[in-house]
Amino acid sequence: MNKIEGINVNTFDSNQALSSSLSDRIAEILACAIEQKGEATLVVSGGRTPKPLFSELNEQSIDWSKVTILLADERWVLPDSDDSNDKLIKTCLLKNKAAAAKYVSLFTGHEHAENAAKALETRIASLPTFDVVVLGMGNDGHTASLFPCCEQLEAGLTQPQALIATQPITAPYTRLSLTKQRLLNSHNVFFHITGDDKWSVLQTALEQPDPKKYPISDFVHAGTTPINVYYSAA
Ligand SMILES: O=C1O[C@H](COP(=O)(O)O)[C@@H](O)[C@H](O)[C@H]1O
């Protein structure tokens, strides 16, 4: 199945093919924003899925010096950990042509993510409407670091602040996440979904929208920003 009612779904055979197409689309949007406003803001996700996307993106010929990049969420680990999303950005995205981009790291060095949330709130809240947000999804239906059944989920989906510290019960590490409200304050939102398992989760999340069980369903049903799904079977 490759259709979801009311949502634009782009289907590919592989994450590589998907990444090539999504990278072209993102570069097009960023270039257009730079032409119109002199700057652009790109929000990306961490985890394993976006690696091929970052390899494609970092070679795009746009004026990266006018692009601000930030993460949708961070795992509260040291920045040299292989599970650090910050490390992923620094090693896979901020290189080649994209090395010239400005990067706002969510890793502050605070021991507790709650203190980082307070320290970064004004900075992240005052960024302009994002031009592009690329969201991944875990097999449990989480997106950014808004996890099912975690104590902070409701606040992350409903509160007006830009950042929230979360403690998942379905995954390791405390997290720092942009909230739904801040993430959907974007001209373009893409879901980057790979594999049959995640596709089934997304289908279920959309057919039986229950944000407590599938936080990602709350983004689609918010109806504020059109969502484009980029899906590859492998
Ligand atoms: O923990 C996280 O998980 C999701 C999904 O990661 P993936 O490895 O299944 O692609 C990711 O979108 C998020 O940024 C990350 O912190």
From TrEMBL:
<dbReference type="Pfam" id="PF01182">
    <property type="entry name" value="Glucosamine_iso"/>
</dbReference>
<dbReference type="InterPro" id="IPR039104">
    <property type="entry name" value="6PGL"/>
</dbReference>
<feature type="domain" description="Glucosamine/galactosamine-6-phosphate isomerase">
    <location>
        <begin position="14"/>
        <end position="219"/>
    </location>
</feature>
<dbReference type="InterPro" id="IPR005900">
    <property type="entry name" value="6-phosphogluconolactonase_DevB"/>
</dbReference>
<comment type="pathway">
    <text>Carbohydrate degradation; pentose phosphate pathway; D-ribulose 5-phosphate from D-glucose 6-phosphate (oxidative stage): step 2/3.</text>
</comment>
<comment type="function">
    <text>Hydrolysis of 6-phosphogluconolactone to 6-phosphogluconate.</text>
</comment>
<protein>
    <recommendedName>
        <fullName>6-phosphogluconolactonase</fullName>
        <ecNumber>3.1.1.31</ecNumber>
    </recommendedName>
</protein>
<comment type="similarity">
    <text>Belongs to the glucosamine/galactosamine-6-phosphate isomerase family. 6-phosphogluconolactonase subfamily.</text>
</comment>
<keyword id="KW-0378">Hydrolase</keyword>
<dbReference type="InterPro" id="IPR037171">
    <property type="entry name" value="NagB/RpiA_transferase-like"/>
</dbReference>
<dbReference type="InterPro" id="IPR006148">
    <property type="entry name" value="Glc/Gal-6P_isomerase"/>
</dbReference>
